[in-house]
Amino acid sequence: xxxxxxxxxxxxxxxxxxxxxxxxxxxxxxxxxxxxxxxxxxxxxxxxxxxxxxxxxxxxxxxxxxxxxxxxxxxxxxxxxxxxxxxxxxxxxxxxxxxxxxxxxxxxxxxxxxxx
Length: 116
Known about the structure:
There is one protein chain. Helices cover 91% and strands 0% of the residues. It is mainly α. The relative contact order is 0.03. The protein has one helix at residues 2-107.
């Protein structure tokens, strides 16, 4: 019976050793899980912060794009009006020169007709 008792003690010792190894591996796995849960929480926080920042940037960008469109429209309208002013000025100058020419002719002394 002592041989059986010794074998049983050996099996018991191996069983305890295996259980201790499994517990040790479980503890290591649990430590890794906790680290990954902390990393997950940090990443979720970073995502929330970046999402909020992205939202603010998108809002600012939309406002700036609207302002740029307003600038573009104002510039185009101003340039068109300026071109009309230039055309009108050119027309006015042409008319003024023509009238000045007519006035010059009207005020020139006439040469008398000399008939021999």
